Amino acid sequence: MKEMEEKGNNCFLEGATEDDYIVIGALSMGDPILCEKDSDRISIYNLEAGRIEEDESYPDFFSFLRDLENIIGMEV
After folding, report:
1. Helix residue ranges, H only, 1-76
2. In percent, how much of the chain has pLDDT > 90?
3. What's the order of all strands across the beta sheet hosting 32-36?
4. What is the pLDDT of residue 5?
5. For 60-70, how does the pLDDT look when each residue is reduced to its tens digit (9 = 90+)?
6. Which of 7, 17, 35, 67 has a CA that sits 20 to 30 A from residue 50's CA?
7. Within 13 Å, how many C-alpha atoms sit on residue 58's CB side?
8. Radius of gyration, alpha carbons of the chain
9. Cα distances (angstroms) measured from residue 49 to each of 3, 21, 43
C-alpha cells in the first residue's frame, strides 16, 4: 500500500482513492489484490505500471477465481 500512496491517487480506477479499497492478498510478484469497499469488485494493482489495469479488474470474487489460473500463469 505504501507504494500506492507514493504514486498518488491516479493509480486507481477513475474517481477512486486508496480509501475505497481493502487489500485482501497479493500475487507472488507482490502486486496487491484489492477489494472495493462499496462493491464486490476485485482488482489487481499493478505495482510496476502504478495502476489497476482494466483487464485485471473483476466484477466479483468468483469471476476473479475463475480467471486465477490465467492470472498466475498455471496450466491445468
Report:
1. 2-7, 61-66, 68-72
2. 62
3. 21-26, 32-36, 42-46, 51-58
4. 45
5. 999 999 999 98
6. 67
7. 16
8. 12
9. 11, 18, 14
